[in-house]
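Risk mitigation, structural track. In case the binding assays with 5-phosphoarabinonic acid fail to produce interpretable data, a predicted complex structure has been prepared as a fallback.
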Amino acid sequence: MFEKLPIALRTDYLRPDVTDEMISARREQIELADHLLRSRKCRGAAFTGWLHPDGILNQEELVRIVETADRLRQESDVLLLIGIGGSYLGARAVIEALADEPERVAYAGTNISAAYHARLRAKLEGKRVAINVVSKSGTTIEPAIALRLMKDLASYNAERLIVVTADAKKGALRKLADEEGYESFVVPSDIGGRYSVLSAVGLLPIAYAGIDINKLREGAARCAELCRSTDPLSNPAYYYAVARNLLLEQGLVIELLAVFEPHLHYLAEWWKQLFGESHGKERTGVFPSSALYTTDLHSLGQYVQEGRRDLFETFIEIRDGGPALVVPHQEDDADQLNFIADKPNETERTLNYVNRVAYEATALAHRHGGVPNMTVVVEKLDAYALGALLYFFEIACAVGGIMLGVNPFDQPGVEAYKRNMSEILGRPGYTQRPLESGKARYVTF
Ligand code: PA5
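Fallback model:
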C-alpha cells in the first residue's frame, strides 16, 4: 500500500454516498482544474508558488535557514515565534507533531489577550529568548502588538537573537529588519500564508525545533510528483478533493477532521485554516472542523453518532503510532482489562493497537450512524511523511477550490473585522467611529 508514498486514502466508508464511479465521472472536471492550476490560468494564479515544493527555496537560502536555526538553538533556550494564521500554523503543526522538545518553541501574536501575554512573559522569565517574527504584510495587528510587548526579552542581544521573516521589499517589518540590521528571510511574493509552511516562514522555526527540513521537503516533493496524475483512482489527493465536493453537493456542509494523536492537534488547526480560508467564500465551501479522538468521543461523539446528518468525517490514522507501550497486567483485574494485558500476541497488548481498534470501531459506528467517512492513512509519522501530507492537503485544497469555482488563494473576508477594528481604534486613514457596544442589547439577571 505504501510503495510509492507513506500515505493512502481509505474510501470504503464513503459508500454508498460516494463511490469510485461517481469520483471517476468527474475526471474531466479534475483535468480542467489541474490544467488551470499548472498552467497558472486559475483564479489567484499569482499565488501558486507552493506548487513545486523543491523550487520554493534555492540552496543558498536553505543553508542559511539551517545555519541560522542552529545558531539560534545554541544561543537561546526558547524560540518565541510571533505570527498569526498562515504565518505560524504550519510551523506549529510540524513542531508539535515531530519535535522531541516542542516546548522549546513558544508562540505569540496569535491573540490580543493580556492574560495570555502576561503568563507567557512569566513563563519566559530567566530564559534566553530568541524571536522569529513572521508577517508578510508587516501590519497585522496581533503580531505587531506582540512584538512591541515581547521584543525586550531578546534586546540584550537583539542583533543576533531577533530574526525577521517578511516580504522581500515592502512593509514595516522589512523596514525594521533593514534599519536594525536583524537577520531576515523572505516570505515569497507568490505564496499566500496558508500555503507557506515549506518556505522560510515554516522552515526556520521547524529547523530550530530540531526537525529535518530536508526530509520534510523531500516528502512534499515526492507527493507533488505523484500528484501529477489526474486519475483520481491513482491520486488520493484528487480523490479526496472530489469526494468532499460531492458530499457538499449532497448537503453535507461540515467536515470533521478527526485525529487519534494529541500531537496532531495543530495539524488539524493548520488544515482548518487551509480549507476554511481557501473555500469559504462566495457562499460555498465545506465548514472545516476538527476533533481529537478518543477524547472528543466523550463529548462530540454523541452528536456525530446521532445528531443532524449534515456532516462527514475525515480521519487521520497513523499506522505506526510510536513507542510500544503495553497495557500492564494487574493482579486484581478490578478494571477487567487483563483480557488485553494477557493477550498472547504482544502487538495486541500495545496502546497503538488499542488506539487503532478505537479508530476502526469509530469509523464503523459513525458510518452506521449515517456519517460517510474516509481516512488518510499515514504509515509512520516522520518528517518525510508529514511533508507529503502537507502537500497532499495543499494540492487537494487548490484543485478542490478551483472545481468549486472559487479563488482558493485569497481571503477577502478576513479584512472585514480588521477594517472595523481600524475604524473603531481610529487608525490614521480610517474614519473613526465609536464602539458599537453603546447600542448593544443585553438580557440581564
Ligand atoms: O493565509 C493567510 O494569508 C493569512 O492567514 C495570513 O497568513 C495571516 O493573516 C497573517 O498575515 P501576515 O503574514 O501578513 O501578518
